[in-house]
Amino acid sequence: MNICVIGAGYVGLTTAAVLAELGHEVNCIDQDKHKIEMLNNGEVPIYEPGLKELIYKNYNYLTFAESLDGYIKRASVVIICVGTPSWEDGSTNLCYINSVIDDLSSRINSYKTIITKSTVPPGTNEWIYTKLLEKGVPPHLFNVVSNPEFLREGSAIHDMFHADKIVIGLRPDDQQSLSVVQEMYSGISSPYIVTSLNGAEMIKYASNAFLATKISFINEIARICEAFHVDVSDVAKGLGLDPRIGPQFLQAGLGYGGSCFPKDIKSLEQTALSKNIQPHILRAVQTVNDTQIDIYIRKLRLTLDDLPNRKIAVLGIAFKPNTDDTRYSPAERFIRELSESGCIIHAYDPKAKLDDHHRPNVIQKTTVNEAIHEADCVFIATDWEEFKQLNWSEVKQLMKGTIIFDARNCLNREKVEQCGLHYIGVGRG
Ligand SMILES: NC(=O)C1=CN([C@@H]2O[C@H](COP(=O)(O)OP(=O)(O)OC[C@H]3O[C@@H](n4cnc5c(N)ncnc54)[C@H](O)[C@@H]3O)[C@@H](O)[C@H]2O)C=CC1
Ligand SMILES: O=C(O)[C@H]1O[C@H](OP(=O)(O)OP(=O)(O)OC[C@H]2O[C@@H](n3ccc(=O)[nH]c3=O)[C@H](O)[C@@H]2O)[C@H](O)[C@@H](O)[C@@H]1O
């Protein structure tokens, strides 16, 4: 098949590379000139494990361009993967989707299956269909399909090849799109969930909201555990063995971040409010998440006297391990809030860079040892494997103080304490 993927971000690039690997000819379009130049020069603008290799392997089946011109004509399938950020009030800003519809409408001259992979609120795909009709695209030349994406950054390629489901939302009279999508994904043996356009959009939001709820739930439980000197990791283990609950997404920590959970939960909240439905759970999930960092700053103040004159090594800047993505990263927010105390912060991350708007007392170091050197406290803000594998005797030698603050509960407490260091975790008594 000839497929046009619009948007060369985390989702668009992964989709393009995976579809090329499945044997399709894929044209990936992005309005960002710099990204396209990089891709055409053999560079990949984001860090995602295995992505560079998959793109190189399929270079002959992939093209990268700034404009849809020429590519739409050839494509039978168009996949929209542009960003859907939040407006100030939390509702979804559909300006990028809107501009794609404008770009597409004047170029559709033969039948296209238009698939939306971007996360969009219920009703958006119906609106896309109507908008294309209003712009004069004849109904026999297109159909609109909702195919939300469930990949996680850091394991995006694996998640796409081994998706636990492929969700397809169709218009009621659409008889042809399901077989088009099945042909496109042939090679991926995941179960299909076929529903309406609105149904597919809701499945995506409900999934992210449920996962975020699990995280805020365990973070609230961690607060209670702390007060009763109980280790929340034991509680999570006990909870997770119940098959009705499951073990995943019960890791207490600094709270959830990233480009999706924060915006998608806000968007679903606004969607509910637009229909006069009070989303009590969604509000509580956000309240817990928004206050999680404050708890750990307060704890740090209690643990270290004279915080303004201390040096803190913060390990981790990305919102989670195995990515360079810092969008809504709890680690970056923690660094920003902690820096207001005046203490010196030496930050380190294997892949992510601090943004340019930090105070002068925040310095990014290029190795973990440089960050730790002479530190009063080491604060684990992102659970990278590199931090879990640290040699704690060597860390002790390099540090000035002895406090290891494990804000992701990812370290082996005994190993840390055996080296004469003082371990503090999240909700671990
Ligand atoms: N990042 C993730 O892990 C996941 C993201 N999603 C959803 O997928 C969508 C995309 O997310 P990301 O890939 O993270 O975004 P991103 O911000 O990394 O990439 C979006 C790309 O679209 C391009 N773009 C915007 N308007 C355009 C236009 N009119 N024509 C051509 N290119 C245009 C931008 O230049 C950018 O490169 C969002 O709706 C997000 O919620 C869904 C599942 C996972
Ligand atoms: O819609 C999206 O964009 C994607 O959002 C998440 O994927 P992602 O944001 O890449 O990362 P997650 O692994 O879900 O982690 C999100 C945040 O929650 C935090 N988290 C996760 C799990 C946990 O137990 N505890 C916890 O604090 C992570 O540190 C991170 O900050 C979902 O897991 C994907 O299914 C979805 O496709």
TrEMBL record:
The lineage of its organism: Bacteria, Bacillati, Bacillota, Bacilli, Bacillales. GO terms for biological process: polysaccharide biosynthetic process; UDP-glucuronate biosynthetic process. It catalyses: UDP-alpha-D-glucose + 2 NAD(+) + H2O = UDP-alpha-D-glucuronate + 2 NADH + 3 H(+). Keywords: NAD, Oxidoreductase. NAD(+) binds at residues 30, 35, 84, 119, 153, 263, 327. SMART domains: UDPG_MGDP_dh_C. This is UDP-glucose 6-dehydrogenase. It comes from the Bacteria. Belongs to the UDP-glucose/GDP-mannose dehydrogenase family. Pathway: Nucleotide-sugar biosynthesis; UDP-alpha-D-glucuronate biosynthesis; UDP-alpha-D-glucuronate from UDP-alpha-D-glucose: step 1/1. Residues 313-413 form the UDP-glucose/GDP-mannose dehydrogenase C-terminal domain. Substrate binds at residues 150-153, 204, 249-253, 257, 320.
